[in-house]
Structures are given as C-alpha cells and as structure tokens.
C-alpha cells in the first residue's frame, strides 16, 4: 500500500496534537507540583511521578484535554451556525466535518433551530454521506 503524501492539514494536525499532549503533560505536572512541592527540583527538566500520584496525574491530563475539547466544540458552533444560516444542508456539513449526515444532524441540530433555517437532508445531486 502506498502512503499518501502528508498535506499541510496533516502537518498542522500533527503539530496541534503534539502541542495538546505537551500542554496536557505540563498542566498535569504543574498540578502535581502544587500537591507535592517536594518533587519540584529546579535543575531537573522532568518531574518523576510517584506511583501514588499516577492516577491523579492521568486525571489532570484528561481534565486538560477535556477542557480543550469543550473549547473546540464551542469554536465549531459559530461556523456551523453561519453555514446553516447561509443554507448549508446536513450533507454539506457532514462533508466539511468529515462525518456522516446523521452525526452532523445529531451534533448540531440545536443550532439549526437558532439559525432559523433548518437544512435539508442532502445537497442537490449529493449522496448525503
């Protein structure tokens, strides 16, 4: 199987995911040092996570990623609402969101009501994904 060349979007997504992971680590380790100041050794770049703190550190990483996810969901709502107001169909939204039509409808149906222009099932001549 031949691999497709990496696009600008792929590189951007890879960089974003790396940044999210690094930021989640920094947040979780910062919370660890707040709980356990005895672990903060200035010359050491990595803070060893004691076994009894692994669960809390993992949950702090999860909390950070969930916070980012909630922000991204809100950031998606505005362009989706604008597209709905402009007359986008569920099929068009699904294509842009890279999901199935029903998933797009389930995730953003509440915005269709706010936009005042409920979309149709699929674009003319489209498959509706």
Structural features, described:
This protein has 129 residues and is mostly helical. It has a domain of 58 residues. The chain is 64% helix and 0% strand. The radius of gyration is 21 Å and the shape is elongated. The C terminus is likely disordered.
Write out key terms for the chains shown.
129 residues; mainly alpha; 64% helix; elongated
Number of helices: 4
Q: Spans of 5+ residues with little confidence (pLDDT < 50)?
A: 123-129
Largest sheet, in brief, is: none
Judged by helices, strands and strand pairing, the structural class is: mainly alpha
Q: Level of helix content?
A: 55-70%
Rg, rounded, reads 21 Å
Portion in strands: under 5%
Average pLDDT, rounded to a whole number, is 85
| Overall spatial form | elongated
Number of strands: 0
Topology pattern, helix = H, strand = E: HHHH
Cα separation of the termini: 25 Å
């Amino acid at each position: 199987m031949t691999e497709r060349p990496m696009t600008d979007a792929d590189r951007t997504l890879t960089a974003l995911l790396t940044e999210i992971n690094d930021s989640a680590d920094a947040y979780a380790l910062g919370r660890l040092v707040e709980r356990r100041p005895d672990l903060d050794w200035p010359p050491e770049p990595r803070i060893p996570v004691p076994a009894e703190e692994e669960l809390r550190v993992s949950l702090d990483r999860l909390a950070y990623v969930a916070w980012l996810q909630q922000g991204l969901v809100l950031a998606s709502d505005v362009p989706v609402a604008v597209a709905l107001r402009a007359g986008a169909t569920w099929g068009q939204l699904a294509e842009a969101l890279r999901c199935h039509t029903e998933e797009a409808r389930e995730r953003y149906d509440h915005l269709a009501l706010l936009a005042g222009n409920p979309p149709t099932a699929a674009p003319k001549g489209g498959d509706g994904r």
